[in-house]
Amino acid sequence: MVIKRNHPESGKSGIALIGSVIVDELVPLLELGQLSYVDAAEFVSEQELKGEHPTFSVGGMALNVAVDLSKMGKGYRIAVFGKVGEDQQADLIRSTLFTHHIDHHGLVVTPKYETSRTEVLHIRMANGSIDRIFRHVLGAMGSFNENDLRLEDLSSYKIAAFGYGLLLPQLDLIDEVYGTKLGKLLADVQRMSVMTALDFVSPNQENMFKFMRYKKSLPFVDICCINEDQACALTEKNDPGAACMSLVDDFGVKISAVHCGAKGPNFTYSKEIGLISQPNYIVPESEYKGNAGAGDAFFAGFLHGIHRQWPIERATQFAAAAAAVSLGDASCTGAMRDEKYILEYAENRKMRS
Questions:
Q1: Residue 114 and residue 90: Cα distance in Å, rounded?
Q2: CB 319 within 8 A of CB 257
Q3: Residue 113, C-beta contacts closer than 8 angstroms, at least 6 positions apart
Q4: 123: which residues sit within 8 A by CB, 6+ positions away?
Q5: Domains held by the chain: number
Q6: 47-88 pLDDT, tens per residue?
């Protein structure tokens, strides 16, 4: 079956983020063997019995990328489409979107499920290092499906970014023609002359079979922005640069971007431009607070550059700088700055050799 790919219309503007809307519950550092009192504050003062003091922040691709884009000083529409429950977590999400002037009318509300959330537990290991445990409640996003999204609501946007693949159970389901239900949505959006973008959570051995379904979905992706492990697994290439090229040459993506963690470098590729290698920026220890959300920051920076119609080289450099800036706060989006700051950062900071 041949699917015609339309070119985005020049009159379209804005970026729609479709998918994971999550509230992260960040539990304070725990020591191995420690007894932790979850609800002590409900009964006695902290002097009597010290309890946990979790903090809450929004997370997930749609929220993280939307907030980052807003902070960049967009000058264009940003909207989030997803599904939430009828609870305080949903109120936090709407409040965050309102604060950052992000359209939230695409949020579907269900009384049946709670808003999706992730408990993030920080554990000090025996060797003194700190590791994290993630406990995810699928909640409302576990039921998010193609019927929760009106395609006509996306038709006026320049870019529609979907994610995370592998964390959208109803859209990860198999489709014989398009690979996945999400692949069918990507194809439908392309037919409206809207650029499509896609990101994933990293697979494990248990869900690798679902990840492989997305090979048939990739021809309907204009911008695939994923990490090196995901790119190498999908393409069965050992080198991230080769994997970046393979996403385009072998699987039909239009533009691929592969971000490669702290060491880098990062890669972008299109048939018109060829392979671009972008080193990471050196972040001083005094400016490093955590790497949560760095991949989403790279994705946001790259989408911003593509929307601005910058050359891919400039969009890639901007994305790398945005990821570096994001490391300045423990939360996913707290450190993000405006476009001017990020451009100056890219111009003046040193990169890894």
A1: 9
A2: yes
A3: 85, 139, 140, 142, 143
A4: 29, 30, 31, 32, 130, 131, 132, 133
A5: 1
A6: 899 888 888 889 999 999 999 999 998 799 999 999 999 999
- What range defines the domain where residue 104 resides? 15-20+67-112+140-348
232 located within any domain: yes
Assigned domain for 243 exists: yes
pTM for the model stands at 0.91
Which tens digit of pLDDT belongs to each residue from 14-34?
999 999 999 988 887 788 888
Distance CA 239, CA 236 (A): 9
Q: For residue range 233-270, what is the model confidence (pLDDT) as tens digits?
A: 999 999 999 999 999 999 999 999 999 988 889 999 99
Report the CATH number at residue 184. Answer: 3.40.1190.20
- What kind and span of H or E run contains 16? strand 15-19
Tokens of 71: 């902070």
How far is it, in rounded angstroms, from Cα 50 to Cα 111? 35
